[in-house]
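One-letter codes give the sequence; each number marks local geometry. A record appears below:


***
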Amino acid sequence: MTIKRALISVSDKTGLEEFAKELQKLGVEIISTGGTARYLRERGIKVKEVTEITKFPEILNGRVKTLHPLIHAAILAKRENPSHMEVLRQLGVEPIDLLVVNLYPFEETISKGAKLEEALEQIDIGGPTLLRAAAKNFKYVAVVTNPNEYGEILQELKEKGDLSEETRLRLAKEVFELTSHYDAAIAGYFEKLCGEGGFPRILSIYAEKLQELRYGENPHQAAALYRFGYGLAEGRKLQGKELSFNNLVDLDAAWSLVQEFEEPTAAVIKHTNPCGVASAESICEAYRLARDCDPLSAYGGIVGLNRKMDVKTAEEITSTFIEAVVAPTYEPGALQVLARKPNLRALEVPAEVRELDFEIKQISGGILVQQKDRELLAERKVVTRRAPTEEEWRDLLFAWKVVKHVKSNAIVLAKNKRTVGIGAGQMSRVDSTEIAIRKAGERAKGSVLASDAFFPFPDAIEKAAEAGVTAIIQPGGSIRDKQVIETADRFGLAMVFTGTRHFRH
């Protein structure tokens, strides 16, 4: 079977002129509609209008043009079915062998804040109908939706005179991927129009595969990166080895953490937990301080910066072994320095890249969806006799931003806008406290402590005070808050309740 007739009706005309001319050279008759037909004629390409086949004019300002039995019969007829072909003969219709269609730019339109009427006009009706018909009948009709496919289609037609069933099947699959995503975008838009709030009754997820990964968390697990919405997946790798599954998870943790801060801030991540975070006047100093919070753990870590990577910072980063770094942008000289470590992955994620307002976690047989933890604190209530000093307030708020990004049970010790000890992911809060104190060593003296959730018992407060901690920030809400506060007062600590918990599982 060869391709003799093609119906072309596209919104995105990228590469169309060359594609249509090459089809014409191969002897393919081209049928088209309104704007596409004019575009092709203006470029010297012979076109037959759809109306010549249907004997029916385009109506309703072009809303109805391809929605006609003769067009869909030409697409849906099974070539090996004698009764189908007899119907086409009686109607005087030749089969359509190739459909080239892409859809009105609905998502692009609403992303620009279009008004309702404009958005409605960008809901394609005829396009999806044609695409689904052709994809259903892919054994006889090849269907192309993406201009990036034009080159491969032409090459196969020139080499083989037709498209293989394997190619047709793949193109049909792409149709249903496209139309399902298109409908999901429209459904999401109408969900917002209804203004019901909360979570939709049906959650449609469309994710585009960006690349296969070497493996997942472990070498025996296959993995791939998909783009869903906005965020780190939009990043651009500037150098280094292929990003691994674990690299991407840690880079996301690093990037999310440093976005909490307005001043220059750096974070070093190990297994999704920060092992060092610091803010300073320059991003180089912030990184150096963050690394030195726990240099042993920082070895082989992942670095996040919320400022442009400059030469000095690049030199500091390459002075030790770092797996990967993410920053909003890079100085050319910094990239030259990083190139000395060819395996070091450098990811660029523009600061203006948006993130979705919700996150998804998988459980067996389902998914959990929740809003992102964007609220920092509900209140700043001093509950002890002593209030924090100005310096303590500064460090308490710094530690509170960091503790949001530490796995529960989470304890962060901080001093001078840098972490000095972090206890993460323990089964008891006192264990996390002890780890943070051990990590800090002598630096615990004069530090402040942040806890992601309330203290169920005063024991952790006693250990913190004995180590030299002077102030504590925590959500409050324990049935033993009174005992906890009394313990803090007994040691002369300042304690602040935030009214906001930051569990991270």
